[in-house]
UniProtKB/TrEMBL annotation:
PROSITE patterns: CYTC, PROKAR_LIPOPROTEIN. Heme c 2 binds at C224, C227, H228. Heme c 1 binds at C79, C82, H83. Binds 2 heme groups. Its cofactor is heme. GO terms for cellular component: periplasmic space. This is Cytochrome c peroxidase.
Amino acid sequence: MMSKKQILIIFSLCLFVYACKKSDMVQEQVEAFLGFQQPANFPAPVYKLSANPVTKAGFELGRSLFYEARLSRNNTVSCGSCHIQSSAFTQHGHDVSHGIDDRLGTRNSPPIMNLAWNKAFMWGGGIFDLDLQPVAPITNHEEMDESVENVMAKLRLLPKYTTLFKNAFGTEEITTARMMKALSQFMVMCISSNSKYDKVMRKEAGVSFTTQEQQGYMLFKEKCASCHSEPLFTDGSFRNNGLSLSPINDQGLYTATLIATDRYKFKVPSLRNLKYTAPYMHDGRFLTLDGVLEHYHSQVQDLPNLDPILKNGARLGIALSDEDKSKLLAFLATLNDETFINNPALAEQ
């Protein structure tokens, strides 16, 4: 027969095991996959989620593909190489992207965030469907330098992907369309909507702008919001913002449309997470936000197709005093979203 002490030990172990299982169950419930959730202060998404609903298995496949170096010719570069989560999915510190064999691109890596609300992609346009966007970096000579056919062949050799594709789509078939849809499921889940600005707009308890932030917000609405409209802080358009021409003479949207009035127009970027996404502009020419503001204040060039918003009689640009700049910077800091850049669900697993 067991002693009282032995019985107590066994009973205690049983309680411990039960408590652990209960804790695991609670944790699983907390971490339950909710799919795509539209933030309360955001408009309806542009991406057609009805044609590609986000599932847990599809998202997990997309995440694996996003960090998969086999998408590149020599298996060294993944999407995550140039779109790093801690930098709001940009390639922080590089003026232009660094791709395969450390080849240099011609443009700064744009952040991957809130893409479900984008109507067009790339700095210079040309792609209007998120499901097609990954083809550009995969096949670009300076980025991944691979063919989609070779990517498919490499993925089909890996039992890991046979399982992941079956989980996501019901069969083991690995196709281009499925790969693109899975990548989209991951990318539309890269939602940045938990900055201080968002909390203020949602009227969350205990959150409010400081006096300087509020003054900056008022200035922003007066001087910047015509292009960087709330709550995404971009209107998704392509504009010529008067940057001096670069040595490579990148002609922006014109390259995609061949319409003369599109020369030197580039996509208006979101102003979210600027703390993490330096350097700035399509070619990364400005290392600091001070440099960006000074450009709009005093360095706008009268180029063909300059946006009319930047023409104010004889003066080009936007008049900004040093005090204005300080207030604007204070407001822009409220758009930084630490939750987004630290979200473990978006990290490489």
